[in-house]
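Field reference: sequence -> structure
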Amino acid sequence: MSLDRKTVKMSSNIPHAALQEAARRHNVFVPADSPYQRQVRLLQALWREERKYPIGDHRGPALGSRLKMPWAQRSLANYLTPTIGRLVACEFDNRNKLRKLYGYPRLFDDLLSSQPLCFNLFGELKADFALATAVLRDLTKGVVEKVTRLEFEHSPGRGDRRFSGDHSAFDVYVEFVRNDGGRGFMGFEVKYHEDLSNPPAPHRPRYDEVAKDMGCFLEEKRAALQAKPLQQLWRDHLLAGSLTAARKFDSGQFVIIYPSGNTPCATAVNAYRECLSDDSTFAAWTLEEVVAAISFQCRKAWVEDFDNRYLRFSKLEKA
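Structure field:
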């Protein structure tokens, strides 16, 4: 089994009225959803129904993209393999000691959340650094020689002025030996249904200091970087830049991963690139590209299961 390496767009030929009717029938009609968000929410409901998992709720009413609590926490059914489930349970149990912020009960019951998606995408790679190395070497065109560390919800120091001075964290963080023998890292932000529309955080003078030191941002674009939808990307990029300098890495890169059909994310990424004079510390990968790279290296069932759950929009035609 090897998934097609080309980028696959989401289903776009479903009439709006039919999509709404299907969402209501499967208990996932949320008025605020965009058409794309409605499709991915419905996709998660179909995945839950295929497995006959009990439906959860949101503030009372049943919601098909949620699992029933506390069953979801006990069963770890949000996760594709026992290995990933055990990793999540360990991370959650040690969250205070590790200073990691995991949303509860979202980590266990929310099928749509990007936080469980991160574990489902990278959890098996954390358990197998040889696989992680092969996948990331492929995606970086040979830059990664050997993965040495992989963490979730990682910040080098929340609120620490040696870094960006706020509480930003990478969804996934990877350290590696480069093909030239140097030390490198990548900090990942992973999106699924999110559209980067959250209000921007208050601006901090430390952001300007780090941006000046990095030297890759166009001055005339500073106002755009401080506003939505770009500020979250900018803050994560600043965290990567400050970490590179403070820990004296030979290279550091911020990478955003998102489905090709998530138009708001794609638009924001294009706008963000226009704010850069040098994009060597920034990359954007589609979720389809990452899954295809994993599939190319790994023949195990969980890769197909991931694709079926998160990216198989053809199932919506039948729904």
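Note: The longest strand covers residues 144-154.
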